[in-house]
Design brief:
The chain has one domain: Sandwich (Jelly Rolls), CATH 2.60.120.620. Helix content is 16%, strand content 37%. It contains 2 helices and 14 strands. The strands form 2 sheets. Strands 1, 2, 3, 5, 6, 8, 9, 12 and 14 form a 9-stranded antiparallel β-sheet that branches. Strands 4-7-13-10-11 form a 5-stranded antiparallel β-sheet, with no helix packed on it. A hairpin with a 2-residue loop joins strand 10 and strand 11. The longest helix is centred in the middle third of the chain and has 19 residues.
Length: 194
């Protein structure tokens, strides 16, 4: 397991934040790789037709390839540490592609309240993570809000903040008012809860 310079911290109920897991240079590399992919308009599992009321985002999928193997390896080690310290879930590991997500102020990007457990065609997700790639000064609105503990919790907006939470936690991304926000969404699956 990799030795990290920083540590994850519990911030509210089951929500964990890990600041400074990635260096600015690593964040730049993640963003540059994400920008090289072809983003598409995101859909919503189980919803047909126009989903603008629920979600307006563009996404691209980062498959595990040699160019980003370092990213998958670092995330796997981080997830193992987070799970060992805070959740103790049975996990399969980091098997799904990573979702490079773009919220655009010109489109009113948002994602209404939802959970990440997955549908019939996806594995049973247990831990969801969101890595903040854009400095908070470059956009307005677009807050990751989680319904955990005593009420809604606004996730940290600092570039490089990794937010982890059980995939059954209700969460949303509020509408972006201006600018552009990019994030990397990660899901870790495992056998169904018993």
């Amino acid at each position: 397991m990799t030795m990290f310079k920083s540590k994850p911290q519990n911030v509210s109920g089951p929500i964990v934040i890990w600041r400074d897991l990635f260096t600015p240079k690593e964040l730049d590399a993640i963003e540059a790789y994400g920008d090289s992919l072809m983003p598409v308009r995101a859909g919503t599992v189980g919803v047909e037709g126009n989903t603008d009321h629920a979600r307006i985002t563009k996404v691209a999928w980062m498959e595990r390839k040699p160019k980003v193997d370092w990213l998958f390896a670092k995330l796997e080690d981080a997830v193992m540490q987070i799970n060992a310290e805070f959740y103790s879930f049975d996990l399969f590991g980091l098997e799904q592609a990573l979702q490079y997500t773009i919220y655009d102020g010109a489109e009113g990007g948002h994602y209404d309240w939802h959970v990440d457990l997955g549908g019939r065609d996806t594995e049973f997700r247990k831990i969801s993570l969101s890595l903040q790639l854009t400095d908070a000064s470059r956009y307005e609105g677009c807050d990751l809000t989680l319904q955990a503990g005593s009420g809604p919790f606004g996730a940290e907006r600092a570039r490089g903040a990794l937010i982890a939470f059980p995939s059954y936690v209700l969460h949303r991304v509020t509408p972006i008012q201006a600018g552009l926000r990019k994030s990397l969404v990660i899901w870790v699956a495992g056998p169904p809860f018993r």
